[in-house]
Amino acid sequence: MTDKLDKGTDGARPAAAVSKDDGPASAAPAVIKAIPVRHYGRYVSAVVVLALVGLLINAFATAEKIQWQAVGDYVFDSTVLAGAGRTLLISVLAMVMGVVLGVVLAVMRLSKNPVTSWVAWVYIWFFRGTPVYVQLLLWFNLALIFPMLNLGPLYKDEMVDVMTPFMAALLGLGLNEAAYMAEICRAGLQSVDDGQTEAAHALGMSHGKTLRRIVIPQAMRVIVPPTGNEFLNMLKTSSLVYAVTYNELLRATSTIGSTSYAVMEMLFVACIWYLVITSVFSVGQYYLERRFARGSSRNLPATPWQKIKVNMMAFSRERSSTV
């Protein structure tokens, strides 16, 4: 019997064959007690960071020259709220201008026409290579070069009346944003496989219809995330229009600070409103990205509201089972 068991593959004895000489059956393995590695450096660094943060908070909280009551008094001041509304308005309008013009420039850049491609490249090169602050000042002082805006029979007026602070802010922010959006849109359009365009042309679709119905919807998955970041950046960059005397949030708070001698307090108020506006739009960007990611990912992570709903359902089931 033992000889038959010894004749396994390659002469090896099967593991299941146990002779009488092998002793008793294998005993249960001993319980292994896993001792986690202690990371003392993490504890030390956490204590140091918390201590520094505590010292920083305590320094601002106990500063005698900061009137924290003034911060609370002016957060919902009508002048501050009007400035926040103008900041939101100029940011949205400039972003819309940047997105529309950016799509046009991206299509021009990808065009086989060398003239349109070259013009788009020069535009992007200039507006990306010069600071936004300088561009705002150029638009605001355009009347020094062109005292009159003469469009023939269509429109004629003095440049000072045309180039208002609002118009200078809109052109300065919108045209600069268009250069960055052009590169974002170009990357998104190039991310779509060429086979999609060839298939659409084989079905008889024109180039424009293929772009609108096939290419751009698929490119939105790549375009939307950086566009959201650009809009959040636009909300903060809009503070530069202070230079062209547009009465947005920073200028409104600075005006109050100069008259009430609460300069730092009003800067804190401006920071609070910038954080509130950017946080609200960050939530919107999160859900917008999820919507355009549906076609590329089947298993999207649950949203915070979905997690709360699942936890509540699990709690109700557990409670009903115990009853």
TrEMBL record:
The question of whether Transmembrane helix is a record keyword is answered with yes
Its subcellular locations are: Cell membrane
Q: Where is the composition biased (Basic and acidic residues)?
A: 1-10
Major localization listed first in the record, in broad terms = membrane
SUPFAM superfamilies for the chain: MetI-like (SSF161098)
What are its GO cellular component terms? ATP-binding cassette (ABC) transporter complex
InterPro entries with a match to the protein in the record: AA_ABC_Transporter_Permease, AA_ABC_transptr_permease_3TM, MetI-like, MetI-like_sf
**BP GO terms, sorted:** amino acid transport
Keywords of the record, alphabetical order, are: Amino-acid transport, Cell membrane, Membrane, Transmembrane, Transmembrane helix, Transport
Topology in the lipid bilayer: Multi-pass membrane protein
One Pfam match, given by its short name, reads BPD_transp_1
* Alphabetized PROSITE patterns for the sequence: ABC_TM1
Per the record, which residues fall in region Disordered? 1-24
- The transmembrane residues are 43-63, 83-108, 120-146, 267-288
Q: Do the record's keywords include Transmembrane?
A: yes
Question: Which residues are in the ABC transmembrane type-1 domain?
Answer: 84-285
The molecular function terms of the Gene Ontology recorded here are:
transmembrane transporter activity
Would you identify the family this protein belongs to, as annotated? Belongs to the binding-protein-dependent transport system permease family.
Q: How does it assemble?
A: The HisPMQJ complex is composed of two ATP-binding proteins (HisP), two transmembrane proteins (HisM and HisQ) and a solute-binding protein (HisJ). The HisPMQ-ArgT complex is composed of two ATP-binding proteins (HisP), two transmembrane proteins (HisM and HisQ) and a solute-binding protein (ArgT).
Name under which the protein is recorded:
Histidine/lysine/arginine/ornithine transport system permease protein HisM
Species annotation: Actinospica acidiphila
